[in-house]
Design goal:
single chain, about 140 residues, alpha+beta, 3-stranded mixed beta sheet, 2 helices, 10 strands, about 45% strand
Length: about 140
């Protein structure tokens, strides 16, 4: 009788570890068409589109020195769910996307999903589902 109870207790102690592992997903993002090595690449993982590209609303952020051509960035331990990606090439490294008349991006950017080129992006068009198996995607930079 003691052995089944010991096995049950052992399994119960491992359950929180299994549950934690099941909620952690990895995301790999490859950016293509980066035009130069000026400044940095900034990427935000968003679970709602408010204040784009305001980093205060991001679930996860990444900043890395820019490299011309392509770069691959990794996010680990994300909770599975619905997300969108907003990326910009901060060439002057001031932390803000420079815009002409406050509207037209003057620095490179990339967005997940089918967003088109006109008008502000919508979360629904940018969104993708991150499963517990993770995901990988490639985004072309637009200048």
């Amino acid at each position: 009788m003691r052995q089944p109870i010991a096995v049950l207790l052992f399994i119960l102690t491992l359950m929180p570890i299994w549950a934690t592992q099941a909620l952690a997903a990895d995301l790999e993002v490859t950016l293509t068409g980066i035009r130069n090595d000026a400044g940095s690449i900034r990427i935000a993982v968003l679970n709602r589109l408010t204040g784009f590209p305001d980093a205060d609303n991001a679930v996860a952020l990444h900043k890395e020195p820019a490299r011309p051509g392509s770069m691959t960035l990794h996010f680990t331990g994300l909770e599975p769910g619905r997300y969108a990606l907003a990326v910009f090439h901060d060439e002057d490294d001031d932390g803000e996307l420079q815009r002409l008349l406050g509207l037209i991006p003057l620095e490179g950017y990339a967005l997940s999903g089918n967003t088109g080129r006109m008008g502000p992006p919508s979360f629904g068009r940018m969104a993708f589902v991150l499963t517990d198996e993770g995901a990988a995607m490639t985004l072309p930079m637009r200048y």
